[in-house]
Amino acid sequence: QVQLVESGGGLVQVGDSLRLSCASSGKFFSINTMGWYRQAPDKQRELVASITPDKTTNYLDSVKGRFTISRDNAKNTVYLQMNSLKPEDTAVYYCNRLPNYPRWGQGTQVTVSS
């Protein structure tokens, strides 16, 4: 099964930045659309950003202009640069392929303190 390993989360202040990384063991990473998701307490998981094999990107409206998704196919890694963080960005962040692999990674916690 494909393994997804997220990292880079932490506790930050409002307005700070973080860069999340997700390493995939998938053999066909370069031809997959990849996405970053987040799940806040008592809320459903939501798709935050996605990037196609040709690097076309899409974003949740609430993060447009603040978050940037990118990928390095040589490293089988997808990134999420998060700037101007807000308390409402607090969540566990996950990456996955679109459509999703059945097995999710452990995620990485992002906490934005005001």
- The percentage of residues in β strands lies in over 45%
Q: Tally the beta strands.
A: 10
Order of helices and strands: EEEEEEEEEE
How many H/I helices? 0
Give unreliable regions as ranges: none
* Mean pLDDT value: 97
Strand order of the largest sheet: 2-10-9-4-5-6
Q: What is the topology?
A:
Elements: E1 4-7, E2 10-13, E3 18-24, E4 33-39, E5 46-51, E6 57-59, E7 67-72, E8 77-82, E9 91-98, E10 108-113
Q: What would your notes on this structure say?
A:
The chain has a 6-stranded mixed beta sheet with strand order 2-10-9-4-5-6, with no helix packed on it. Strands 1-3-8-7 form a 4-stranded antiparallel beta sheet, with no helix packed on it. The protein has strands at residues 4-7, 10-13, 18-24, 33-39, 46-51, 57-59, 67-72, 77-82, 91-98, 108-113. The chain is mostly beta strands.
